[in-house]
Amino acid sequence: MTAAALSVEIAVQDVAGARIALDAGAARVELCQALGLGGLTPSTGLIETTVGAAAEAGAAGFVHVLVRPRGGGFVYAADELDTITRDIRAAVALGADGVVVGALTDEGALDLEAIARFIDAAGDADVTVHRAVDASAGPVEAVAALAALGVRRVLTSGGAADCRAGLSTLQTMVEASGMLEVMAGGGVRIPDIADLAAAGVDAVHLSARGTTTRGGPSGPGGGVAGFDVTDPGLVRAAVAAARLSR
Questions:
Q1: pLDDT reported for residue 111
Q2: How many whole angstroms separate alpha carbon 86 and alpha carbon 84?
Q3: Pick from 142, 141, 139: which is nearest to 166 by CA?
């Protein structure tokens, strides 16, 4: 039997990016804002309009919402954990097919108690644990623990700065993952996709970003000039490479 092709997830920050991912044949999007900070929770309006775009296209299981209240590390105070839980419920109520979450303990271990709480808040929606795994003290052990927790997939670079450096660890994670899907993310380039497929991962994740100055200069107090956009050519190339990988 021929192995299934890798699925492709695109991190997007607007509805336009989601439509590009839909048109190019990506399996899903990770919907977020502020990718420059590693991604933060998107607004309710953005969730609602992206869910609507996916519904119009007949794309089931397409919208997965990153729930992360701030930049920085993944050790959260009680109020932050409460915010994450509430945002998970809100995203699912708006029609999100899944949420992307993660948390660590003060000791650097994956916070399994918090993640169990997130899973409960998500109900029937998919739960992906993000690259908090890569910041943990034991990334391989973290993946093995998630396999028994009811998480659908894990996004990881193999505990390294990028997937190329973490390739051998990604393969070890796949072997320890059981039914958990392993999605490679972190500096993924189109030529890397074949190597990631050979390592046995189930999916690849990339932002496929470009920059535009559309809208003119931001002016005093408006922040940096320009903003991120999703590059259609990169998304199409990633989907094509994934289809050829197996």
A1: 97
A2: 5
A3: 139
Two tokens, residue 30: 């990770």
Domain ranges of the chain: 7-132+201-244
Read off the pLDDT of residues 160-173 as tens digits, 9 standing for 90 and up: 999 999 999 999 99
Residue 222: burial class (beta carbons within 10 Å; 0-12, 13-18, 19+): exposed
Q: In 3-state terms, what secondary structure has residue 226?
A: coil
Assigned architecture for domain 7-132+201-244:
Alpha-Beta Barrel (3.20)
- At residue 7, the pLDDT reads 97
Mean pLDDT of 112-141: 97
> For residue 245, what are its two tokens?
């990988």
How are beta strands 227-230 and 209-212 bridged, if at all?
A: antiparallel
Residues paired with residue 209 on neighbouring β-strands, in sequence order: 230
The mean of the pLDDT values for the chain is: 94
pLDDT at res. 106: 97
86's tokens:
């509430």
Rounded to two decimals, the pTM is 0.95
Residue 118's closest CA among 80, 156, 168, 144?
A: 80
**Mean pLDDT value of segment 112-119:** 97
Instruction: Write out the two tokens for 158.
Output: 């193999």
99 neighbors 86 (Cβ within 8 angstroms): no
Give the SS3 label for residue 23. Answer: helix
Phi, psi of 228 (to 5 degrees): -70, 145
Question: Measuring CA to CA, how many Å separate 177 from each of 7, 147, 149?
Answer: 17, 6, 11
Spatial separation of the C-alpha atoms in residues 67 and 132, rounded to whole Å: 12
pLDDT reported for residue 2: 45
